[in-house]
Amino acid sequence: MNPLQERIHAHFEESIKVKQLAQQVLPDATAEAALLLFNALANDGKILICGNGGSAADAQHFAAEMTGRFERERMELAAIALTTDTSALTAIGNDYGFEHVFSKQVRALGRSGDVLVGISTSGNSANVIEAIKAAHERDMNVIAFTGRDGGKIAAMLRDGDVLLNVPYPRTARIQEVHIVLVHALCDAIDAMLMDGLSA
Ligand SMILES: O=C(CO)[C@@H](O)[C@H](O)[C@H](O)[C@H](O)COP(=O)(O)O
Ligand SMILES: [Zn+2]
Fold first, then answer.
1. How many other C-beta atoms can be found within 10 angstroms of the C-beta atom of residue 51?
2. What are the residue boundaries of the SIS domain, all occurrences included (predicted)?
3. Beta strands in 94-188 (DSSP E)
4. Can you count the helices (H) and strands (E) in the chain?
5. Which chain residues have CB less than 5 Å from ligand 2, an ion?
6. Which of 11, 55, 153 to mutate to test the pocket of ligand 1 (most atoms within 8 A of CB)?
7. ipTM of this predicted structure
8. Which of 14, 42, 61, 146 has the fewest CB neighbours in a 10 Å radius?
9. Which ligand is nearest to the CA of 173?
10. What lines the ligand 1 site, CB under 6 Å?
11. 145: which residues sit within 8 A by CB, 6+ positions away?
12. For residues 58-87, b (16+ Cβ closer than 10 Å) or e, as one string?
């Protein structure tokens, strides 16, 4: 391999290693998260999802697989990415500050029984932290996708919330596990809904 190919090869090696680490530490919490989401949807609740940058893309990816479909045909499931309404994002950001762009939407849309999914590889993004505070005010449970040591977000979760933390220091690798988790959750919800899979 030439140096460029070696560099690319190393990305795959590291990604495999971090996914194997995550495979050891995350299945229990991911199953808990799947049950939380399934029960919310089964009781007419909805899922609100937020994150920044690559995690905003993950939020949209997850919401699209709920409202559209994952791998199989099924009923539409209620999920909204809070990252897509540029008018809300710019108005709230401009008038109140960027840390409030998600929390104002959570207060507006969130109801008891809904679930907030907050995605932050550092566990420290202020707008995700504010969104979690707003979700708790609305009596919503939270599923936090984080990385490193879970940051401030890990410390603010309450009973009934679920932490999906990837204990690794590199953002790209954490994000790659987060998207595996999104797909594992989509698959679990579909299997519970359509095949009667139970925990
Ligand atoms: O996708 C990437 C890096 O891979 C970036 O866009 C990254 O998501 C952004 O820097 C985010 O602002 C990071 O925020 P967070 O994950 O620490 O909450
Ligand atoms: Zn990225």
1. 28
2. 37-199
3. 115-119, 141-147, 162-166
4. 8, 5
5. 54
6. 55
7. 0.98
8. 42
9. 1
10. 52-55, 120-122, 125, 171-172, 175
11. 51, 55, 58, 117, 118, 119, 120, 164, 178, 181
12. bbbbbbebbeeebeeeeeebebbbbbeeee
Closest-approaching ligand to the CA atom of 51:
1
**Distance in angstroms (rounded) separating the CA atoms of residues 22 and 79:** 25
Q: Cα(101) to centroid of ligand 2, in Å? A: 21
Q: Is the pLDDT of residue 199 over 90?
A: no
Pocket test for ligand 1, best of 49, 171, 176 (most atoms within 8 A of CB): 171
Residue numbers of the domain that contains 13: 3-195
Query: Side chain identity at 28, as an amino acid letter?
Result: D
Q: How far is CA 81 from CA 7, 25, 29, in A?
A: 34, 27, 22
Question: Token pair of 101, please?
Answer: 């762009």
**Unique residue bearing structure tokens 């762009």:** 101
**pLDDT tens per residue across span 8-55:** 999 999 999 999 999 999 999 999 999 999 999 999 999 999 999 999
The number of distinct structural domains making up the chain is: 1
Instruction: Tell me which residue has tokens 């104002």.
Output: 104
Domain harbouring 114, CATH code: 3.40.50.10490
Tell me the binding residues. Answer: 52-54, 61, 65, 94-95, 120-122, 125, 175, 183
